[in-house]
């Protein structure tokens, strides 16, 4: 009889049905039979379905990359961008407050500027909280962590080999080695997928470069105003920073995976 498979909610891979994932060790979704038994044993407890936390929205589309995976990668990259933006806002706010202390200061203008900076700061802080809440990991990243975990288990097992029953030692060793073998097999597939994503990111950056050239041309020939030009340019430069950060993160993961 073929082994029943379920999808692990933690690593996203199909593994044999059971209480825990054979690959990452996290609890697996309960089967319908187990759910029914639980409800029969404790019918007084209301079982509530927890809605998954939605991922942050991004206007960036990356070819060959699922939107969820792109959001996870882009979220971590945007955090680095936001930290620098928050530092910039704090510096401007401090400078504005100092200017307000001067006798000749135009308090109306400076107060308006301070309020605008405060609003921008709150928006950035809110976005940062949204990005920090993303705990999801790319399959490639999760597989690397799981490999480290189980290779660590193997090392510990070898260290205590003389202090445990030989049959127990062999049993544990076979189980760990099989898990590592399965992880490495899945890692090969994840590397292939990651390389496709890397190509998609490069294509996106080329599109951005072309768009930046288009904006510069429109401004120089007078098709758009300076204010429209500066706003569009700043937005595009920010997106380029985020995607470039994602590219570096993915390249690092692929580099580490290539060594396994």
Describe it.
The chain is mainly alpha-helical and 260 residues long. Among the domains are: 1-51, no CATH class; 68-132. The protein is 69% helix and 2% strand. The protein has a two-stranded antiparallel ribbon. A hairpin with a 6-residue loop joins β1 and β2. α2 packs antiparallel against α3 (107-132) and α4 (139-159) runs antiparallel to α5 (166-220). The longest helix has 55 residues, at 166-220. Residues 31-52 have low confidence and may be disordered.
Q: What topology does this entry show?
A:
Elements: E1 5-7, E2 14-16, H1 32-41, H2 67-100, H3 107-132, H4 139-159, H5 166-220, H6 226-258
Antiparallel strand pairs: 1-2
Helix pairs in contact: 2-3, 2-6, 4-5, 5-6
């Amino acid at each position: 009889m073929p082994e029943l498979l379920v999808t692990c909610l933690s690593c996203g891979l199909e593994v044999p049905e059971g209480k825990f994932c054979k690959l990452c060790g996290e609890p697996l979704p309960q089967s319908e039979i187990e759910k029914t038994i639980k409800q029969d044993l404790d019918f007084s407890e209301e079982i509530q379905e927890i809605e998954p936390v939605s991922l942050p929205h991004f206007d960036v589309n990356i070819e060959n990359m699922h939107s969820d995976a792109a959001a996870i990668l882009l979220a971590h990259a945007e955090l680095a961008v936001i930290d620098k933006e928050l530092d910039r806002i704090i510096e401007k706010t401090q400078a504005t407050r100092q200017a307000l202390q001067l006798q000749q200061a135009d308090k109306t203008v400076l107060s308006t500027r301070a309020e605008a900076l405060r609003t921008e700061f709150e928006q950035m802080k809110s976005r940062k909280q949204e990005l920090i809440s993303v705990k999801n990991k790319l399959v490639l990243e999760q597989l690397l962590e799981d490999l480290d975990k189980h290779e660590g288990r193997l090392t510990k097992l070898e260290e205590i080999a003389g202090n445990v029953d030989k049959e127990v030692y062999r049993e544990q060793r076979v189980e760990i080695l099989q898990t590592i073998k399965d992880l490495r097999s899945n890692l090969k597939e994840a590397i292939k997928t990651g390389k496709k994503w890397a190509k998609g990111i490069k294509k996106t950056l080329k599109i951005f470069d072309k768009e930046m050239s288009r904006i510069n041309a429109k401004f120089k020939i007078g098709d758009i105003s300076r204010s429209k030009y500066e706003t569009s340019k700043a937005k595009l430069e920010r997106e380029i920073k985020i995607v470039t950060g994602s590219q570096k993160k993915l390249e690092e993961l692929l580099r580490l995976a290539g060594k396994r």
